Amino acid sequence: MEADEYRRMAEVEETHWWYRSTRALLRQLLEPVTTPGGRFLDAGGGTGATGGWLAERGTSITADFEPMALIANRDLHPRTAGFVGADIARLPFADGSFDAVVCVTVLYHDAVADPVAVVRELMRVTAPGGVVCLWEPGVRRLRRAHDRVTHGARRFSLRDLRTVAEQAGLRVERATGAYSFLVPPAAVKAVMERGRSTSDLDRHQDGLGNTLGRVAAVERAVIRRVSLPAGLSVVVVARRP
Known about the structure:
Rossmann fold; 21% strand
């Protein structure tokens, strides 16, 4: 990821509608299947924009390869118990160290050669019966300017992400699309931005006067009852047997 993108993430994580909405959906999906006071890993957690809240739930560790991201995370999330520089494919933790592992927008990076091998490593450090949550960019053929800034090499259909989890040995309990309402405008933007590299974080931080945040809240209410077949993001919640 471009260094400037980490700076943008740190600056807007509390104000940008997407980060607020993403944290809300992660809480909705994970709180019913995790125990307060547990041990949590934010794998590839960057500046903590999506996983910093785990420190409120229990003992949370953030692992990331980028020192700049960990420094920003430490400043923004002092309740997090530890910050570890690590390659997500070779985590420096013992087998079964965590009750839950959260991995948000990591597998799509060009630095990840084998997503299944990475998820297998996430499963290794998860305790038997523990939870692994994967969140990745959706719509396989959608290549946007933001993907170039974040060094994205791939996007996932919901079936793709479910298959990755299952091939790693996890038992999928929930799989859903998210931000389905953003797919049509994102497709239009992809055509308009063809060949360019620009960050989404510089625009519409308030979600068009919080309109996008309100639509996301309605979508979360739907996801509470049913899973969506697709979305600009796709999410899998799985359990280590």
